[in-house]
Design brief:
By secondary structure, the protein is mostly helical. It folds into 2 domains: 51 residues, Homeodomain-like (Arc Repressor Mutant, subunit A, Orthogonal Bundle); 144 residues.
C-alpha cells in the first residue's frame, strides 16, 4: 500500500470516527482527543489532517451532504418521471442514510439550533448551496408550467422533512409504543413511506397536471 493510500485511508477513518461521535454526542461535546482515541492515534495525528474542529465538522457534514444531496437533485430533476415516483426514490435515498445513521436528523436539528449562522456558513463554504438552488428552481419551473401546483417552497420543505424525519427523531418512542405486534421498526418505516408520498403528492397535485 502506498503512503498516499495509507494517508487517504486514515483520513477516511478520522472522518467516520468524528461523524459517529458528533452524531452521538453533538459537536460541542466532542473533542479532538475523543476523535483521536476512537481512531487509535494521538491528537497531533488528527490535527495533521484537520487543523481545527471546525474543519473536522465541515469534512463530516460535507461527507453526508455529498453522499445524499446530489442524488436527490438528480432524482428531482427527472421531470418526465411522475412526481410520486420521484418522491418515493428521494425517500429511499434518505432512508438509506438515516438507517445507517438513525440519530442524524436529531444531530442536524441540534446543530442548526446551536448556531445556525455557523451551520449555514458551513453549507456555503462546502459549495453545496447550488444543489439546493437547482432543486428549488427545478420544482418552481414545473409549477410555472402547470405540471405541479404552485406551493410556497418553505411549506413543501416543512411538509416533506417533517414527515421524513419524525420516525427517526422519535425512534425510541416508535419502537416502544407505536409498533404493532411482531412488527419491526424497519417494517414500520416501509409502511410509512407511502404516507409520505401521498401527503406530498396531495400538496403538489394539480388538476391540470398532465
Amino acid at each position: 500500500m502506498t503512503e498516499n493510500k495509507k494517508s487517504e485511508d486514515l483520513e477516511t477513518k478520522i472522518i467516520e470516527a468524528a461523524k459517529e461521535l458528533f452524531i452521538e454526542n453533538g459537536f460541542a461535546e466532542t473533542s479532538m482527543s475523543d476523535i483521536a482515541t476512537k481512531v487509535g492515534i494521538n491528537r497531533p495525528g488528527v490535527h495533521y489532517y484537520f487543523r481545527t474542529k471546525d474543519k473536522m465538522f465541515q469534512a463530516v457534514f460535507g461527507s453526508i451532504v455529498k453522499s445524499l444531496i446530489p442524488k436527490v437533485q438528480d432524482i428531482i430533476l427527472q421531470q418526465d418521471t411522475p412526481i410520486g415516483e420521484r418522491i418515493g426514490r428521494v425517500v429511499d435515498a434518505y432512508y438509506e442514510v438515516f438507517k445507517a445513521n438513525p440519530n442524524l436528523p436529531i444531530f442536524i436539528m441540534k446543530e442548526m439550533h446551536r448556531d445556525f449562522d455557523y451551520f449555514s456558513k458551513t453549507i456555503t463554504e462546502m459549495h453545496s448551496v447550488h444543489y439546493f438552488d437547482t432543486i428549488r428552481n427545478g420544482l418552481q419551473n414545473e409549477m410555472k408550467k402547470g405540471k405541479l401546483k404552485t406551493v410556497p417552497m418553505r411549506f413543501l420543505f416543512l411538509t416533506f422533512y417533517s414527515l421524513l424525519t419524525m420516525p427517526f427523531s422519535t425512534k425510541n418512542m416508535c419502537q416502544n409504543i407505536l409498533l404493532e405486534e411482531n412488527e419491526t421498526y424497519d417494517e414500520m418505516l416501509a409502511k410509512w413511506k407511502p404516507y409520505i408520498i401521498t401527503h406530498v403528492c396531495n400538496l403538489l397535485s394539480n388538476e391540470n397536471q398532465n
